[in-house]
Design brief:
Blueprint lengths: L1 H13 L1 H30 L10 E7 L5 E2 L7 H10 L3 E16 L2 E10 L3 H5 L3 E4 L4 H4 L8 E4 L1 H8 L9 E4 L2 E9 L14 E4 L3 H4 L13 E2 L2 E6 L5 H19 L10 H8 L2 E6 L6 H38 L1 H9 L4 H36 L16 H26 L4 H6 L8 H37 L10 E6 L8 H14 L6 E7 L10 E6 L11 E7 L3 H5 L3 E4 L7 E4 L2 E4 L1 E5 H7 L9 E4 L9 E7 L14 E5 L6 E7 L7 H11 L6 E5 H8 L1 H35 L1 H9 L4 H30 L15 H26 L4 H7 L1
Parallel strand pairs: 2-10, 4-9, 6-8, 16-23, 20-22
Antiparallel strand pairs: 1-11, 1-12, 3-4, 3-7, 3-11, 5-8, 6-9, 7-8, 13-24, 13-25, 14-24, 15-16, 15-21, 17-22, 18-19, 20-23, 21-22
Helix pairs in contact: 1-12, 2-10, 2-12, 2-13, 10-13, 10-15, 10-21, 12-13, 15-21, 15-23, 15-24, 21-24, 22-25, 23-24
């Protein structure tokens, strides 16, 4: 192989343009595949670095809850205890809850992400301490609010405490509560989310300190789902075999819950639905990641697209190699005449292919690293470190090497076989224009170009669908004027504020900001809009009797006076909130008024005014209609464009709850950031300000998956079209070179240049037409598979197909016209003399 390798390198050095085009084509295809696979590996394929990950399961319910549900796949704390004590298939069960926290160290306060965990969390996962000790059930899972201790993540210990070995025993304040650091978890342990990890962990019995906004939430409440539950299967059990036993226990627990006071007033329909619930055990060897849920479908779609790009790149290089082999027919014939075997020639040409492929692979790794870093920079981290890296690891290198080798074989084998079988006698005596075997090579090259056109149509059509879908999402009427509107978040409860102090703080900040230079108005909302977050509640409505199974939910938000003015959402009827609309009675804050949106009115009060009507929390017989509707506002989006307009109920903002502040500026929004931070510092220098951005930026974050698919698919579609165009140009230039004598004779006999152009363009149109006959039906058929990712456009949209055909035909015509125009200028004397 060494002589073959040397010969291949010398040959490529003599053809630098060929080598450059081939290596760059392969590098782009291999780099794109490696970048997407890097993300797929880390988000979708990698198992958790814990003891026996294949025996981990996540437990959640598919059931009517008849209570509050605070997040994805949540369970009540009593259900976690029942599973821990009574589930026969499970050797151990843990629970967890991610929460924001404010941490003060040496008089410096910052916001971090914390994880509340049961005492057996580390022992069940088989995690050892890097320093100090970790939690255990005996010491950290016994007394409500009695375990003010903290375990640091290894990364946070390194970055925030400079790997200080004396950190164990250090006193810090977490959410304005004194706690003690007792240890650091092992290096490399991130938790049960493979993409993101909290900086600190706290025993779950410290819930009251860590979740001060949720004082109404109690550990013994079976109707409140707020913890995620994971278990470890006993030896001999599988996920499937454990299901029946777990469902039996779950049914017993639900039967018991039907006897509790909370269930006595449920309707027969509600009781029947409650008993139809199921508990689901799902393998958790890969952990549970919201990022995975958001990006899994997008990554699979993109992997399919980059696979097509690589196929087009391979076809392009194969075309180049076929042309190169054709031009080397006499060289090959000489070598055969001197005794070389066909096997030796094929081996030599495959060596050249592999040299090109591995050069493309090396360059592709660099492209993959840059592309992966660019993609990760778009993912919002919200202060939580992203565990996904762009560095190629062993698995990625193996994937890239395997892909490179396969690519070299795919695009090199057929050209090598084709080029290694000339008839030496005919080839050596023939002229250049009629070398034996040329027709077969040309048919193969035309077939490859046809395939490239078909694949390019698939990619361009898909890119057009995704770009149009993103455009539809971004132009959806939000009901809010986004220009010059910024938002940031505050959490007074995490800084030790009580309700009264927090109310005064919010009011003072709301009053101060409009007087600052360049600020028009400011307001507060408990739930940030267009962020995917939501707070919903069942409601009772005056004059409306709910039927069995009727959805009585409304999406809630607590907002301050001036909120609708700041958002520029029109008030259709009634009045805005006033500062005295809510009041404190003991430890509770009571509101007697609400504002609803047009969607709510159209559903519950069709054709009449809602002003003066009353609503109440919950939809059972004990619900009291104590809240008066004092205003109606226009519809606006809540979670995001995909979710559409919901029925909304707004109540007055109150207390110390975490909230989003909205500031309407008169100047470009980004210039107001420092001013806003300064105003907050003047009121409380220790109050962390986080998630400051424009609301337009917030919408972009919410549409991140759609943006990534649209951006990358457009890039891959254009790249595929460029590669196909190069391939088409190469084939037609080759055709013109082969027909040089014929075209020269035509011109000598009086043919017009336009006729010569048409002779060449006719072949271009034929190749493109065949490619489109294959590509159009394939694209229309596959469009249904990406329909769930689209918004406002069908997966088989005929208008988009037509535009794609026009674009591809235009680009192909330009690629073919250049050699056609060159053919029309052939000098007949030179053409005949050449022959």
């Amino acid at each position: 192989m060494i002589p073959d390798l040397r010969y291949a390198i010398r040959g490529l050095r003599r053809s630098p343009l060929f080598a450059f085009v081939a290596i760059l084509s392969l590098a782009l295809g291999i780099g794109a595949n490696t970048a997407i696979f890097t993300l797929i590996d880390q988000i979708l394929l990698r198992k958790l670095p814990v003891a026996e990950p294949d025996r981990l399961v996540m437990l959640y319910q598919d059931a009517a809850n008849m209570g509050s549900n605070m997040g994805s796949r949540m369970n009540s704390y009593p259900l976690y205890q029942d599973l821990q004590q009574k589930a026969e298939p499970l050797s151990e069960v843990v629970c967890r809850r991610l929460v924001p926290a404010s941490i003060s160290v040496d008089n410096q306060t910052e916001r971090v992400d914390a994880e509340m965990v049961s005492g057996n969390y580390f022992s069940m996962l088989g995690v050892k301490p890097a320093l100090g000790r970790l939690f255990n059930s005996r010491e950290d899972d016994q007394v409500y609010r009695g375990h003010p201790v903290v375990v640091l993540s290894y990364a946070y210990w390194v970055t925030r405490f400079a790997s200080d070995p004396n950190v164990v025993g250090k006193n810090i304040r977490v959410s304005d509560y004194p706690m003690t650091i007792i240890g650091v978890s092992a290096e490399g342990f991130a938790g049960l989310d493979p993409a993101q990890s909290p900086q600190i962990r706290v025993p779950i019995l410290m819930k009251e300190v860590m979740m001060p906004d949720f004082g109404w939430l109690h550990f013994d409440d079976r109707r409140s789902k707020w913890v995620q539950v994971f278990g470890r299967l006993k030896p001999g059990y599988t996920v499937e075999s454990a299901g029946a036993s777990l469902q039996g226990l779950y049914t017993q627990l639900r039967t018991y819950e039907m006897t509790l006071p909370a269930a006595k007033e449920w309707s027969k329909y509600a009781r029947d639905q409650f008993m139809k619930g199921h508990i689901i055990a799902k393998s958790a060897s890969l952990g549970f990641s919201p990022l995975r849920n958001d990006f899994s479908t997008a990554l699979v779609v993109l992997m399919c697209m980059v696979g097509l790009v690589l196929l087009i790149a391979c076809a392009n290089v194969a075309n180049l190699l076929i042309a190169r082999g054709f031009m080397r027919q006499k060289e090959i014939a000489v070598r055969l005449s001197l005794g070389a075997s066909r096997t030796q020639l094929v081996r030599q040409m495959l060596t050249e292919s592999l040299v090109l492929s591995f050069a493309g692979g090396v360059l592709g790794l660099g492209i993959a690293f840059a592309l992966t870093r660019g993609l990760l920079s778009l993912v919002p981290q919200q202060g939580q470190p992203l565990l996904i890296t762009a560095r190629p690891e062993a698995r990625i290198l193996v994937f890239t090497i395997g892909l490179t080798f396969l690519t070299g074989i795919v695009f090199g084998l057929l050209p090598a076989l084709r080029a290694s079988r000339p008839d030496p006698w005919v080839t050596l005596k023939d002229t250049v224009g009629s070398i034996a075997g040329g027709s077969g090579s040309l048919v193969l090259r035309k077939g490859l170009v046809t395939a490239q056109v078909a694949l390019s149509f698939l990619l361009l059509f898909g890119a057009g669908l995704f770009v149009r879908s993103l455009q539809n999402l971004k132009t959806t009427d939000t009901g809010v004027v986004l220009d010059n509107l910024i938002t940031f978040q505050l959490a007074p409860a995490l800084s030790g504020y009580d309700n009264q102090r927090a109310t005064i703080f919010y009011r003072n900040l709301r009053d101060r900001l409009p007087s600052a230079p360049g600020v028009q108005s400011a307001a507060v909302a408990t739930v940030p809009i267009l962020s995917g977050d939501e707070w919903d509640s069942s409601m009772s409505v005056e004059g409306h009797k709910a039927t069995d199974g009727e959805d009585m939910q409304a999406f809630m938000n607590a907002v301050s006076p001036g909120y609708f003015q700041t958002m520029k959402t029109p008030m259709l009827e009634g009045r805005d909130f006033r500062d005295g609309d809510s009041k404190e009675i003991g430890t509770d804050t009571v509101t007697g008024v609400a504002i609803v949106n047009r969607q709510f009115v159209d559903h519950f009060f069709p054709g009449r005014s809602a002003l003066g009507m009353h609503i109440g929390w919950g939809d059972g017989p004990r619900s009291k209609l104590t809240i008066e509707i004092v205003g109606v506002v226009a519809n606006s989006l809540y979670e995001g464009p995909r979710e559409g307009v919901h029925r909304q109920v707004f109540v007055p903002n109150y207390g110390r709850n975490s909230a989003a502040m909205y500031v309407r500026t008169l100047t470009p929004s980004v210039t107001a950031y420092n001013m806003v931070r300064s105003e907050v510092r003047q009121l409380d220098s220790a109050m962390p300000v986080y998630s400051m951005k424009t609301v337009e930026g917030q919408l972009d974050e919410t549409l991140l998956t759609d943006r990534l698919i649209a951006m990358l698919s457009a890039g891959f579609g254009l790249l595929a079209t460029l590669l196909a165009t190069i391939g088409l140009y190469g084939v037609m230039a080759f055709v013109v070179a082969r027909r040089r004598k014929e075209l020269g004779i035509r011109l000598a006999l009086g043919a017009q240049p336009g006729l010569v152009v048409w002779l060449v363009m006719r072949e271009v149109l034929l190749l493109v037409g065949i490619g489109l006959v294959i590509g159009v039906p394939a694209a229309m058929g596959l469009g249904g598979y990406v329909g769930s990712q689209l918004y406002g456009i069908r997966g088989h949209d005929p208008a988009m197909a037509l535009w794609t055909v026009v674009l591809l035909a235009l680009v192909s015509a330009i690629a073919g016209f250049i050699p056609a125009q060159r053919a029309s200028r052939i000098d007949p004397i030179l053409a005949l003399r050449y022959e």
